[in-house]
Design goal:
The complex is a heterodimer. Chain A is α+β, with helices and mostly antiparallel strands. Helix content of chain A is 55%, strand content 18%. Chain A contains 15 helices and ten strands. In chain A, strand 2 and strand 3 form a beta hairpin. The longest helix of chain A has 40 residues. Chain B is of the alpha/beta class. Chain B has a six-stranded mixed beta sheet with strand order 6-7-8-3-9-10, with helices on both faces. In chain B, a hairpin with a 2-residue loop joins strand 1 and strand 2. The longest helix of chain B is centred in the last third of the chain and has 18 residues. Classes of the chains: A alpha+beta, B alpha/beta. The interface between A and B is medium-sized, with 24 and 32 residues.
Chain lengths: 414, 233
């Protein structure tokens, strides 16, 4: 196509100008894909923290408990019949389950005290399906029937506790009476989830039930693990329907991890919006550069434009031809940016980055404090490339139209 | 029916508060196949008249008819189509597209006119390059051609779409006399072979020598209209 040839050759004719403008676009694209990969990596890591250390993929609990879950009530607990539980755990996507009993407590060693969350866990189910056991850095996982606990490293440091030390948990029972649980530190854990490290004490669920006067096999919730976290939304809907077939008074429901991590997901969406906004601003600046490049090109080629119009080209055809050059800059910048961005994301995904160095414990969010590794998202590369080409084309149209509208009589006889 | 018919054509330009009457009532008929020169002092209205004949501009008053159609009724797109299909232009400064080769400059005119297939286009362009004496130079860009060669490319570009009319504004102004003769001979040859009407705007007596009709413009009016034999056949 001859028009394309003219556009490409004109770009090559003014190499420095073309390359400089393309570099601006490339930098914007590189920044965007890098930041996107970083945020995606952070979010992936954070979601993993939530699903592997806290929530699981789905939690089963009563609707009333869900409404008040932040208060850690001991009312409206869940207790499923065996066959109901079996119907749930037999589903192909469900790989395991673990009941938990969460409660408010105050940890004290007789001198210092600190409010925290106590979590009674089924030792075997928890070890099979979640990573608390894998996160032990000192001591060991507790044994069934023993008054032992596993605590986070930050908590241990704050309370100056070591493996084998005694401590007490002051709790309120279901009847609102105070009670004390005497425990020995069996193991110290360090997870990528600072929330767990700072705020949670793990102990055998039977011990917790006895101390809190919770009867039978009741639990705050039952966490389910699935084959993949992307299945949680659909699976929870179906499990909720299954649970709804039980007695109405129980009002048990299944909640996906996304419902439990709403704040984090909103944060990601907000980050995505901010990122697009920043990209928009940077590309706006690039647009000014592109428009300037096109204006210079048009001024230099007035006679050429006049000749094209004398030969019978319409204004829109001339505009399109010049606009193609602007799109060409966008394509060049886009390709450069994608290559640079891919390199940056490769480094990020291979070596990672510790952006929270020195901030451990200061953020009370389940954001991973570990080294962040970038995540690849091919859609981002495609989106930002197309976006830059379109923006470049549009930014070239105005000056192109201005040039194309010039009266050929005036410019041919200057 | 004459190819061109101008009746009481006037053209007035507004320059600030001043009105400039570039043409003051031109009556003119030009037949198909004529080889006409328009001459006159600077400011006489030659370029303005050529712009109107070439459908680059519209008259303020009167009518300009090309092949029976009045250009006054046409909008900008229709004027562009008229130029695309029926009118070729040759300028003093050639106005070739610098990033295209000689071949591509000529075929670009054909692409705009969308008259032929690619294979037909290739054959036509090569034939015309040969006719204007540029065989072998088709891949050279304008920067690699002499002034005379560039003007020949411009001539070929103007003729490739087989227009009814070619307008040449000072086509020899940047050429030496030998080259000017070569260029004029080619245009005369094309005029005879294709029966294309040529109208030249010029100060160059050499161009006038080749013409068969001389139109003198003074102060926006035709002061002389003379048929003559060309000095060189």
């Amino acid at each position: 196509m001859l028009i394309l040839k003219i556009a490409l050759r004109n770009l090559a004719r003014h190499k420095k100008r073309t390359i400089f403008t393309a570099i601006v676009i490339a930098v914007a694209i590189c920044f965007y894909v890098f930041a996107d990969a970083l945020i995606l990596g952070m979010m992936d890591s954070s979601y993993e923290n939530i699903t592997e250390y806290e929530f699981g993929h789905i939690q089963l609990m009563s609707g009333e408990y869900w409404e008040e879950k932040d208060d850690l009530p001991l009312q409206n607990l869940i207790s499923l019949e065996e066959d109901t539980l079996a119907r749930i755990t037999d589903r192909p996507e469900v790989t395991g389950y673990a009941p938990r009993l969460d409660f408010s407590a105050e940890m004290t060693d007789g001198r210092d005290s600190i409010p925290l969350i106590g979590r009674g866990i089924d030792l075997e189910q928890e070890a099979s399906n979640f990573r608390i056991k894998d996160s032990i850095i000192e001591g060991s996982y507790f044994e069934a029937g023993q008054p032992e606990a596993v605590i986070g490293q930050s908590l241990a440091e704050d309370m100056e506790l070591e493996v084998g030390d005694f401590f007490m948990l002051i709790v309120r029972t279901r009847g609102e009476a105070f009670n004390v649980i005497d425990l020995i530190v069996a193991g110290i854990i360090n997870t990528p989830n600072p929330y767990i490290n700072d705020n949670v004490v793990f102990l055998p669920i039977d011990l917790a039930r006895d101390a809190l006067l919770v009867e039978g096999d009741q639990a705050s919730h039952i966490s389910l693990k699935l084959t993949g976290r992307e299945l949680a939304a659909d699976s929870s809907t179906e499990i909720s329907e299954l649970l709804a077939s039980g007695p109405a008074s129980e009002n048990y429901q299944a909640y996906s991890w996304e419902e439990g991590a709403e704040d984090l997901i909103v944060m990601q969406e907000y980050s995505d919006m901010v990122l697009i906004l920043v990209l928009g601003v940077i590309l706006l600046l690039a647009m000014a550069g592109i428009a300037n490049t096109v204006i210079l090109s048009v001024i230099e080629r007035f006679k050429e434009i006049g000749m094209m119009k004398a030969m019978g080209m319409k204004v829109k055809e001339v505009t399109f031809l010049i606009g193609l050059e602007a799109a060409g800059i966008g394509i060049l910048g886009g390709i450069l940016g994608v290559i640079l961005g891919a390199g940056a994301v490769y480094l990020l995904s291979t070596y990672g980055i510790n952006i929270y160095a020195g901030m451990e414990g200061e953020l009370d969010l389940p954001i991973s404090m570990a080294v962040i590794y970038g995540s690849w998202k091919p859609g981002t590369f495609i989106f930002v490339f197309v976006y830059s080409v379109v923006v470049s084309f549009i930014s070239g149209l105005m000056p192109a139209y201005w040039g194309a509208k010039k009266n050929p009589v005036d410019i041919l006889h200057e | 029916m004459p190819l061109l018919n101008l009746k009481q054509v006037t053209k007035v330009y507004q320059q600030g508060e001043i009105k400039v009457e570039a043409l003051r009532g031109i009556d003119l008929e030009i037949e198909k196949g004529e080889f006409t020169t328009v001459f006159g002092p600077s400011g006489s209205g030659k370029t303005t008249m050529l712009n109107l004949i070439g459908a680059l501009d519209k008259p303020t008053g009167g009518t300009v008819k090309i092949n029976g159609d009045s250009i006054g009724k046409l909008n900008k797109n229709e004027l562009a189509l008229l130029r695309r299909n029926h009118i070729g232009f040759i300028f003093q400064s050639y106005n070739l597209i610098p990033v295209l080769s000689a071949f591509e400059n000529i075929s670009f005119a054909l692409r705009i006119a969308r008259k032929n297939s690619k294979s037909e286009e290739k054959e036509k362009v090569f034939n015309l390059l040969k006719a204007v004496g540029l065989e072998g130079l088709e891949n050279r860009r304008p920067a690699e051609l002499s002034g005379g060669q560039k003007q020949r490319v411009a001539i070929a570009r103007a003729l490739i779409k087989e227009p009814k009319l070619v307008l040449a504004d000072e086509p020899t102004a940047n050429l030496d006399s030998d080259t000017s003769h070569e260029v004029m001979k080619i245009m005369l040859k094309m005029n005879k072979e294709l029966n294309t009407t040529f109208i030249f705007s010029t100060h160059d007596p050499l161009v006038m020598d080749y013409a068969t009709r001389l139109l003198e413009l003074r102060d926006g009016r035709i002061s002389k209209d003379k048929i003559k034999e060309p000095a060189t056949n």
